[in-house]
Specification:
Alpha-Beta Plaits, seven-stranded parallel sheet, 20 strands, Rossmann fold, 39% helix, 19 helices, globular, 505 residues, five-stranded parallel sheet, alpha/beta
């Protein structure tokens, strides 16, 4: 049975709704559950899933859609969904219908997270800035012109505007959006890449150190139209922060003029600065004092080293890598030929594509992404040869939520890939944190355990304090026959070596 409940004029932010589907769908007797604001795009998705929506539904309404085996299961599922959405008030929570209701003299808030639909985000952001708060804008679909306006307004008021489309931050020990609860420490991160910032922070923790703050700028901050306003303000704040001794800058390759401006400002810092612009080379850093690096792992390890930490033994050495490859190749039967990477982190996908292009130059590589490192698949729904998929790209998220928040589509794609008798190696990245999927790993581990004839490689971008219990989940993966590495770079390095070995065989 399929049922739809519409709550008229009930707004719930997307962050609060993210975990509903996964947790309710995991209940006995439930095939599927969705809790979404009834935007036009979400209405289309629900209709594709077979739900019938009333004609009166509007984008201002909340929709809870459930497929259950019987009435009893449905009622239980609906109750859980409503409990999660309503989140029973506690003594330390205050609720407001509008930002303007907040009495700043009484409540002293200094940061506002906005996760409204993009068309409403700017107006509310202006209200928060007028109240004297820094901003973290998770909302996407905010125009570039509005982003510039908000960041210039924040700049004039001495306020930090993170986003729009900021996915990760850690401020005062509080993880925002998809961020992890990384232990406190002396290294501050300013990043235009959400998953990149999280990976650097989590590697730092794996080395026994911690992070003071992570400032997420949003992915367009280094566009020439914006000029790096938030990254420059982030550098200034990290330089003035007494708890930060080393600064790390993380971004994909961006506008050359803006990157040079950022590096010039970083040159003037009294604290050491590590910089990663993924896809760059040594020429970018020529004439600058910053420590230039070329992978997420390298940026993290350099920061740990500068902060006085120990990085020995973190990465595979060549002997260790060869030994692992030899063991894996002995298990791979002759009919199995190909590697498949099924990523949920966009920056992880790009880092992998760049690595493969550099180390597997004679091996054809396919992807759903249009880029300089691979051939675009004719049909993203069907892999061929060695293929790397970004399941968080638009061709997939148009049909389902981002896999960081709802891993269901990626799990289905894994099952599809495992039906191909020529698949030899599969790589999976996992991202944990309080704002992402309730359990993004267990179902994948169970599926991997069914295929002992395939080599599975994974890495967990997550902290020991994350609610998903990273240590327990790593053990589960390993018991399921999965090789768990310490970073995306190490996973990629191993997969690349296996790809070359398969081609030589």
């Amino acid at each position: 049975m399929k049922k739809v409940i519409v709550k008229k004029n009930r707004y719930v932010d997307s962050v609060s709704l993210m975990g509903v589907s996964e947790r309710v769908t995991a209940m006995k007797g439930i095939e599927n559950a969705e809790a979404q604001m009834a935007t036009c795009a979400n209405q289309d998705v629900l209709k594709q899933l077979g739900y019938v929506l009333p004609e009166t539904v509007s984008p201002n309404d909340l929709v809870i859609a459930i497929t259950a085996e019987d009435e009893s299961a449905y009622n239980a599922a609906l109750q859980l969904a409503e409990d999660i959405i309503d989140r029973k008030n506690t003594d330390d929570q205050r609720h407001y219908a509008d930002i303007n209701e907040i009495d700043m003299e009484e409540d002293h808030y200094d940061l506002c997270q906005i996760s409204l639909p993009g068309e409403y985000a700017t107006a509310e952001a202006k209200k928060a800035l007028a109240k004297g708060m820094d901003l973290f804008i998770f909302s996407d679909n905010v125009s570039l012109e509005e982003e510039l306006e908000l960041k210039q307004l924040g700049q004039s008021l001495g306020k930090l505007v993170m986003g729009p489309d900021a996915g990760v931050a850690l401020i005062g020990g509080v993880a925002l959006a998809a961020g992890s609860i990384i232990q406190d420490g002396p290294i501050g991160i300013v990043a235009a890449s959400g998953s990149g910032a999280q990976e650097v922070g989590c590697i730092i923790e794996k080395c026994g150190m911690g992070v003071s703050n992570i400032i997420g700028t949003g992915g367009r901050d280094l566009y020439p139209q914006i000029g790096g306003i938030t990254m420059l303000e982030g550098i200034r704040r990290m330089e003035e922060d007494p708890n930060t001794t080393v600064i790390v800058l993380v971004s994909k390759l961006a506008d050359l003029g803006v990157m040079d401006k950022v590096l010039t400002v970083a040159d003037g810092c009294k604290k050491p600065v590590v910089a990663l612009f993924l896809g760059s080379d040594e020429t970018l850093f020529a004439g600058h004092r910053v420590h230039g690096t070329f992978s997420l792992e390298a940026a993290a390890l350099k920061a740990v080293e500068l902060a006085g930490g120990d990085i020995s033994g973190f990465a595979y050495n060549e002997e260790e890598l060869k030994a692992v490859v030899d063991v894996c190749m002995a298990k791979i039967t002759p009919e199995k030929k190909y590697f498949r990477g099924l990523y949920c982190g966009g920056t992880f996908t790009e880092e992998a594509l760049q690595y493969f292009a550099a180390h597997n130059q004679d091996v054809p590589l396919y992807s759903n992404l249009k880029n300089a490192y691979s051939t675009k698949l004719e049909d993203s729904e069907k892999s061929v040869g060695h293929a790397i998929l970004d399941l968080g790209a638009e061709d997939f998220t148009a049909k389902a939520p981002h896999p960081v928040f709802d891993p269901g589509l990626r799990l289905k794609r894994l099952c599809q890939e495992l039906q191909d008798p020529e698949v030899a190696v599969v790589l999976l990245d996992f991202i944990t944190g309080p704002g992402v999927a309730y359990d993004p790993i267990t179902a994948f581990a169970r599926e991997c355990a069914k295929h002992p004839d395939i080599i599975f490689i994974s890495n967990i971008c997550g902290s020991l304090e994350d609610p998903q219990n990273v240590e327990e989940k790593q053990l589960l993966l390993e018991k399921s026959g999965v090789i768990v590495t310490k970073s995306n770079y190490q996973s990629t390095k191993l997969a690349s070596a296996l790809m070359n070995a398969l081609e030589r065989r």
